Amino acid sequence: MVKIKDNEAVTLISGNQTVTGTWANLGDLVDARDLKKLALWLKFTVNDAQNVRVRAVCKRTEGDSESFVQMTQTVGTTEVKLDALPLEFNADANTSAVMPFEVDDLFPFVQFQVQAGTAGSTGASVTIAQVTGQRQNPAK
To answer: Closest by alpha carbon to 25, among 47, 57, 59, 51?
Structure first.
């Protein structure tokens, strides 16, 4: 399990991780207790893959066998929608990106996952995956 100190980068993978058409864990489970926000720092090579996706699945306990996909809220002029939160890279180009995730001490444990919409003959690979966090109360 990954434990995060305030704004300290923690490496999730050591070496490259291949991205396939199936959701796969990106490193270990992250202990998000007492955290307000998480930031996932990724660098990946796309190759022939298309629509590389990242999501956070939440767990209630460290040993929880169930995973719950973090949702995102979109507010329109006539309705509010909740959608599963995969962040998708549509540019299909090698990318370095940082992605924020609000946890607000509501999701005790978070597992980041990656997938490619189309894996391609030479699939994508994650070359860097780090996570940082911001505590609810920085004095802790």
So the answer is: 57
Whole-prediction pTM: 0.86
Task: Estimate to the nearest angstrom the gap between the alpha carbon of 13 and the chain centroid.
Answer: 13
Q: How far is CA 83 from the centre of its chain?
A: 15
Nearest to 61 by CA among 2, 107, 12: 107
User: Mean pLDDT, 10 residues at a time, over the chain (140 residues)?
Assistant: 88 95 95 92 90 89 85 66 69 84 89 91 93 78
Q: State the pLDDT at residue 61.
A: 87
Within-domain flag for 140: no
Cβ(59)–Cβ(108) below 8 Å: yes
Beta strand 30-31 with 2-3 is parallel
CB atoms within 10 A of CB 118: 13
Q: What is the span of the domain harbouring residue 115?
A: 2-135
Domain count, the chain: 1
Q: What span, in angstroms and rounded, lies between the C-alpha atoms of 107 and 127?
A: 27
Backbone angles phi and psi of 130, in degrees to 5: -130, 155
